[in-house]
Amino acid sequence: MSAELSHERLDVYKVYIEAASLCGDVVSGEVMPIAAFDHLDRAIESVGINFMHANGLAFGSPQRASYLDVAIASTHECAASLDVCLARRSAKEHVYAAAMGKLWRVRGMLLGLKRVSENRVREKPEDYGSARFPFAGLDLYQVALQSVRWTNDLLEELGPKARVRRKLDTSTTGLVLNIAEGHGRATAADQNRFMKMAQEHVCQTILLLDLTVARKESTTSRVAEGKTTLARVISMLHAWCARNEVKVEPER
Fold first, then answer.
1. Which domain holds residue 78?
2. Number of domains within the chain
């Protein structure tokens, strides 16, 4: 019988495995594959790998905190991937809710480990309350998610053979995921790096919508609502980055 590894004895790892299993249920469902499935697969592995790296390092070391930061941000990407799956009607609601609940617990436990590692007092005892990730309360995130729902309706109208299907799926998914992961990053500079990638996805999505019109796959009036929503997103992303560029980094 093999010896149990040190990280396997920790509750956070056991809850992580449960979360990973539920995320796997979402990905393995009998639906058309979408870009969010690949992101969810990669992000849930990133949570586990970065936690394992952190667990092998000394308390208080900058490297340990850095690995935990990435693991926490990866839980954000997982949660956003699940939101996209639900918005694209590619996940069952009960599986989505169960996976989100486990991810929320994992995030809280990782935050607790980070605070202990930094010799900080645990400020919020209610880490395991309602499974609502902090980025979910952002107008920016909700409007971006709205663009995913709108695009999904358009793609259903265009049909499975539409030339832009894969690219629109990828660009709108990247938009939502970069906002979520950027919000989970610890520094303003790191946040802006992801928000600027989100800007690139917005620009690509707008371009792709214009191409559907140019190719007579859609009409100007049909894509107008989607472009208006995306214009709101890019305006908010620019404002976010501008605020961060003048923000003084707090001491950590």
1. 7-117
2. 2
pLDDT in tens, 20-44: 999 999 988 767 789 999 999 999 9
Separation in Å, CA 20 to CA 9, 41, 75, 102: 17, 9, 11, 9
Does residue 233 sit in the same domain as residue 191? yes
Which amino acid, one-letter code, is at 13?
Answer: Y
CA atoms within 13 A on the CB side of 205: 33
User: What's the pTM?
Assistant: 0.87
Alpha carbon distances (Å) from 102 to 12, 61, 234: 10, 27, 32
pLDDT per position as a tens digit, 101-154: 999 999 999 998 888 766 554 444 444 445 689 999 999 999 999 999 999 999
CB atoms within 10 A of CB 204: 17
The answer to whether residue 93 is domain-embedded is: yes
By the 8 A CB rule, do 229 and 149 touch? Answer: no
10 Å CB burial of residue 190 (0-12, 13-18, 19+) is middle
Residue pair 122/63 in contact (Cβ under 8 Å)? The answer is no
Under 8 Å CB-to-CB from 116, ≥6 apart: which residues? 59, 122
- Containing 242, the helix (H) or strand (E) segment is helix 220-246
Amino acid at position 71, single letter: A
